[in-house]
Write a structure and sequence with these properties.
elongated, mainly alpha, 94 residues
């Protein structure tokens, strides 16, 4: 089967199913439009938050990890936590 035969078969199928073709094209167009709208809304919200925090004087943010020692259950084992190569022994709470 040649390329031209494949192309003609595809063209005949699309021409024969015009309603299905129109619905498929409309759904794809709607999906692309929704995706562009969502991306635009996210960028607008990001810019608005940046402007709001900038007007309050906070131009930079620092997010830091805060280590918590939360224990669930009544296990009597000691917990060993390593932090930057050092080992620290945490006593169980009673």
């Amino acid at each position: 089967m040649k390329f031209s035969d494949t192309f003609l078969l595809a063209f005949r199928t699309v021409k024969g199913n015009t309603l299905r073709t129109a619905l498929t094209v409309a759904i794809i167009a709607f999906g692309i439009m929704a995706l562009i709208g969502i991306i635009t809304a996210i960028k607008a919200m990001n810019q608005k938050f940046t402007e709001s925090f900038s007007s309050m004087g906070a131009n930079a943010f620092t997010i830091r990890f805060k280590e918590r020692n939360i224990r669930f259950g009544g296990g009597g084992d000691d917990l060993t936590v390593s932090k930057k190569g050092k080992k620290k022994k945490v006593e169980p709470r009673t």
